[in-house]
């Protein structure tokens, strides 16, 4: 998702009085999310042994933990993007449903 598209959609949801607050809140929430993500990655890396130092035995585990902690959040983001896209476009929603029905019917035959 593009930051510009997200911003436009959020700002468009506010009335004229709330647009200034809404547009300033976008940056705050984005930076807070980045800070929380960095903290979670650090916690996961330390739990995997980063605090004891890196060596050939634990570098894979530490790397997987530091980056793997973001996978559930990335999947939630993809699910949210798909939901917003389908909700905002009736044509896409109709095409998505017909493609899903076609896949389901092919499995039965």
In a few lines, what is going on in this structure?
The chain is mainly alpha-helical. It has helices at residues 3-12, 19-47, 59-68, 71-88, 90-108.
Key terms:
single chain, 109 residues, mainly alpha, 79% helix, flat
In words, what does this structure look like?
The protein is an all-alpha fold. It is 79% helix and 0% strand. It is built from five helices and no strands. The chain has helices at residues 3-12, 19-47, 59-68, 71-88, 90-108. It is flat and about 55 Å long. It starts with a helix and ends with a helix.
Helix count?
A: 5
Strand content: under 5%
Given as residue ranges, the uncertain stretches (5+ residues, pLDDT < 50) are none
Report the C-alpha radius of gyration, rounded: 21 Å
> What is the total tally of β strands?
0
Order of helices and strands: HHHHH
pLDDT averaged residue by residue? 84
Q: End-to-end span in angstroms? A: 37 Å
What does the main sheet amount to? Answer: none
Shape: flat
Structural class comes to mainly alpha
Share of helix among residues?
A: over 70%
């Amino acid at each position: 998702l593009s930051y510009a598209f997200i911003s436009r959609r959020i700002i468009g949801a506010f009335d004229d009085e709330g647009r200034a607050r809404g547009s300033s809140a976008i940056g705050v929430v984005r930076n807070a999310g980045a800070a929380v993500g960095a903290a979670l990655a650090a916690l996961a890396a330390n739990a995997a042994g980063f605090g004891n130092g890196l060596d050939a035995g634990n570098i894979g585990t530490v790397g997987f933990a530091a980056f793997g902690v973001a996978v559930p959040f990335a999947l939630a983001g993809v699910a949210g993007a798909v939901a917003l896209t389908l909700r905002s476009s009736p044509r896409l929603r109709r095409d998505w449903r017909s493609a899903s029905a076609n896949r389901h019917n092919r499995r039965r035959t």
